[in-house]
Amino acid sequence: MSDVTTINAALNSPQRQYALERTRNIGIAAHIDAGKTTTTERILFYTGLIHKIGDVDDGNTVTDWMEQEKERGITITSAAVTCFWTQKKEPGIFKTFETIPNRVNIIDTPGHVDFTAEVERSMRVLDGAVAVFCGVAGVQPQSETVWRQATKYKVPRIAFVNKMDRTGANFENALNDMRKKLGAYAFPVFLPIGAEDNFAGLVDVVNQKAFVWGPGDVTNEGLKYEVTEIPDNLKEKAKQALADLIDAVSNKDDTIANLVLEEQPISAPVLKQAIRRLTCRIELVPVLCGSAFKKKGVQCLLDTVIDYLPSPIDIPPTEGHVPGSEEKKVVAPNDNSLFCSLAFKLWTDPYAGKLVFFRVYAGKLKKGDTVYNPRSRRRERVSRLMIIQGSERKDVDSVYSGDIAALVGLRNIWTGDTLCDENFDVTLEPPTFPEPVISMAIEPKTKNDRDKMGDGLARLAEEDPTFKVFTNEDTGQLIIAGMGELHLEIIRDRLKREFNVEADAGAPQIAYRETITKHAEGEGKFIRQSGGRGQYGHACVTIEPNEKGKGIEVLNEIVGGTIPREFIPAVEDGIREAIRGGVYAGYQVIDVKVAITDGSFHEVDSNELAFKMAGIFAVKDAFGKAGPILLEPLMKVEVTTPDEYQGDLLGDINRRRGIILGVDAKAGQTILQATVPLAEMFGYATAIRSLSKGRASYSMEPSTFEQVPNSVLTAVMDAAKKRPAARS
């Protein structure tokens, strides 16, 4: 454990105090209520960053520092903290401990699907992740989402099965869930000693020893554990777990495979090195368990982070490219290299102003240095550097390769911008974000609120890439769009608290999508000739469905110069503009392939505007012939309910046009899995409370877009015509 004095000294040191190989950049990610924030809070206590443990229910945790987070007991924004862990390394079992200091940068991410952007951008800059699972529920819907996000950004991970003290906790079931639902090559490195009320400690599979925590302890001193021999009733299970672990590792690691073939003994350090290699290559997921709330297993989790998750030099260096070209550049973690970093989050602090969170990939940065933004081609001087500790900001003089920190006062910065040395002109791959699925009209209550609302919404949209603000051209209404009801509710709440703006909002509207079902041809002409120089543009296109998820493709198949080369971009612009605005019902078009095949031009009257209009008309002509359909977002819904309410909740889901995917019994409760149209899920929180007398809970996440059935299509189309502000 490190004290606060040591932490402050390390943060403000003029030189690197913790070597790169002793640095870990990790995220804590999981389904809502799996215990991410509680786990983070315990980590901060045992690392000495705090001396009093906060609680989510009490609203006094370090990482849930926003007022809305404290009131609701959920994480809304990802919070970065830096702590230091002195690992106890044993040269031999039960012998003298050797202390090795490590710096751990932690990002606690939200579990609610409405704030998935926070997970997305955090995963982009992390070297490793701790996936937290509930020991009772196992793998839940949002668990799958964050797992996919970690896989997308190639983030190595370990799994922590939390809440082993809860009634119904079952480590084996959670482990099997990971293998079945996530396809994880997951093997335990720790086993539980007991479960539920009898959960007492952990068995270290690799070292074949036990960690047993003392009874009681409701103080803030933290539970003390004792290293002992494995209990007699678990010795055979521990030996079998070690054999299974060695077998699993030998299947993927040549060093261990050779030792097994030669029937040589495999020492704990050798096995740990192999597990680490496979974890860093995302070929193995070490699994352990504990109870963060009861303070059991947190020290083992920290040791597992250090033992198996990578430092910045244990994973392949990140790659960027030269701006405006496909030429790649390798950005290797080295303090002596030219500076290069990625701005992954923007935040407006009421005291410090605009904060730019960034991850340093190479070089170092000091106060007074100049950073260069390849996107804007602008340079700015660094006046203030910070390390973030939840709601606290600690000023530092310099940051180094592998660090996560914040800059103050930079202008014209977007999420995903690269900040680098001017002599190292490179652009790193930014995080990607999902499109909004829900929107509503919003207007200020008074004239005084109007100007303040525009400024507030612009700043909130700058911070959150999944929050969009735009004006509907047909009605002049201001529209806000986001990932769900809760997302937009939090936006309105922040408008009131942070910008003192009172606003009225319309009913939430669904972000439907349009696509087509067959191939078709279309022609567009824009001709205005009434004396003098006129306008002439003529384009022919073909349109066909694209592969699901492939988006929009616009191809140029003009041969023979029927449309001059200089007008092709104008036609493409027209095509994309028509697609953005929607053709069938005014909603965005997805998964369509358009090819420009023919056309004609006039030597005098043709210009870019005419060909842009021709492109718009051609797409609209083809779209109407291509079997247009309307798509609606479907949500994957999981409901956990006492058995007696199962029938009522099943009936309610069916009434909402839901399709039941599965009904499972787990720990005395029924778990319903279904897909339900988002349009039918408004007000579901109130309905489920009423049907179950407050005893059932649910979660949902975006699943896919599917065709709107004919039985509701007319109503949707009529509503779209009456309320054009609902379009997005």
Structural summary, described in words:
With 728 residues, the chain is an alpha+beta fold. It folds into five domains: 4-308, P-loop containing nucleotide triphosphate hydrolases (Rossmann fold), CATH 3.40.50.300; 318-428, Elongation Factor Tu (Ef-tu), domain 3; 438-506, 2-Layer Sandwich (Alpha-Beta Plaits); 517-627, Ribosomal Protein S5, domain 2, CATH 3.30.230; 633-707, Alpha-Beta Plaits, CATH 3.30.70. The protein is built from 17 helices and 38 strands. The strands form nine sheets. The protein has a seven-stranded mixed β-sheet with strand order 2-3-1-4-5-11-6, with helices on both faces. Helix 7 packs across helix 8.
Key terms:
single chain; 728 residues; alpha+beta; Rossmann fold; Elongation Factor Tu (Ef-tu), domain 3; Alpha-Beta Plaits; 5 domains; 7-stranded mixed β-sheet; 6-stranded antiparallel β-sheet; 17 helices; 38 strands; 28% helix; globular; disordered N terminus; disordered C terminus
Shape: globular
By DSSP (H or I, 4+ residues per run), the number of helices equals: 17
CATH superfamily of the largest domain: P-loop containing nucleotide triphosphate hydrolases
Helix content: 25-40%
CATH-defined architecture of the largest domain: 3-Layer(aba) Sandwich
Largest sheet, in brief, is: 7 strands, mixed
Mean pLDDT: 84
What is the fold-level CATH name, i.e. the topology of the largest domain? Rossmann fold
SS content category: alpha+beta
Q: Could you name the ranges where pLDDT drops below 50 across 5 or more consecutive residues?
A: 1-13, 91-97, 724-728
What is the gyration radius calculated from CA atoms? 28 Å
Strand line-up across the major sheet: 2-3-1-4-5-11-6
